[in-house]
Design goal:
This protein has 315 residues and is mainly β. Helices cover 3% and strands 63% of the residues. It is a multi-pass membrane protein.
Length: 315
């Protein structure tokens, strides 16, 4: 393998849907991928300054060994934020990939609700509990099945190391189900969390139910329309939040225009109801490389219109 790697097969061209193939022999493959994004951004918080940010600087490796024609065993790991002092390990898991029965991932990765959300945004986007929450952990088991028209997934997460919100005595479970028919993609998500961990403010004890419904329509040439509904309930405090969202994008040659709006309402007066919006344009400068500009905002108190420009590239 070392000789093959030294032969610099890394120089092979990669398409937008492929990583760089480092090795492929005797049923074993090693692929490398990554992304980088640098931007200048003025946030929506009042009196924010226009400043540079390195949003992504990630590198990943995907290793797979074919057991037979139906099953492969793999390992995946990534390094996040390599260009910053806060750089840390990203996903790291083993996987079992089958041609007919789906994929199982075990390790550090995201759960199903991480796939929820609408809108082709770069900087601001639509805000909801689902969009704002990190649905990932170090102790995850995830299953995915995609049969073309129908797709389905399950995930469970523990925190026996007691390092996250879930906590040693907590647990988390979620699933998604979707169906593609004609020009529609319809999906539903549901999650249940027993949080017994801690955050920066101290110990956390909460029981959450999270749901999402989404629909995407792509029946008009170059145009995509998306709608979403998201709801989160906390049973111990008897509170909930719900968000309605709409987004659209239109592609014209190498330019993609997008925008979206959302409305979030809380059941308690201590939380501020708000509406969020964004509009942007991105230009495909080269394969897998986009330069963009975006404007966004909300109607919260102490908030201003935000804006930014940036460039992102992936392989």
């Amino acid at each position: 393998m070392k000789k093959t790697l030294v032969a610099l097969s890394v120089l092979m061209a990669a398409t937008s849907a492929q990583a760089i193939e480092l090795y492929n022999q005797d049923g074993a493959t090693v692929n490398m991928g990554g992304d980088i994004e640098v931007r200048y951004k003025k946030d929506t918080a009042k009196d924010s300054e226009f400043k540079q940010e390195i949003d992504d600087s990630d590198l990943n490796f995907d290793i797979r060994y074919a057991v037979n024609d139906q099953l492969s065993v793999g390992g995946y790991w990534e390094l996040n934020d390599l260009a910053t002092k806060d750089g840390e390990g990203g996903d790291a898991y083993v996987s079992f990939i089958t041609t007919e029965f789906g994929t199982v991932k075990i390790g550090k990765t995201a759960t199903q609700l991480d796939d929820a959300g609408v809108g082709s945004d770069y900087l601001f986007g639509i805000e909801s509990f689902v969009e704002a929450t990190d649905f990932s952990g170090d102790e995850v088991v995830r299953y995915d099945l995609d049969k073309g028209n129908f797709y389905f997934g399950l995930a469970a997460m523990q925190d026996k190391a007691n390092e996250d919100l879930v906590g040693e005595d907590g647990n988390y479970f979620d699933f998604k189900a979707g169906y593609r028919v004609a020009d529609f993609d319809l999906s539903a998500f549901y999650g249940k969390a027993k949080l017994r961990g801690s955050d920066d403010d101290g110990a956390v004890e909460a029981d959450l139910s999270i749901g999402a419904l989404q629909a995407t329509y792509g029946g008009i040439e170059n145009l995509n329309l998306e709608v979403g509904y998201y709801k989160a309930e906390e049973s111990k405090a008897d509170t909930d939040a719900q968000t309605f969202a709409f987004a659209a994008d239109y592609t014209m040659d190498k330019v993609k225009f997008a925008g979206g709006i959302s409305s979030t309402d809380y059941s308690v007066s201590s939380k501020e109801d708000h509406k969020d919006w964004f509009i942007n344009a991105g230009y495909t400068l080269a394969p897998n490389t986009t330069v963009y500009a975006e404007v966004g905002g909300n109607d919260k108190e102490e908030s201003e219109t935000g804006f930014g420009v940036g460039i992102k590239s992936s392989f």
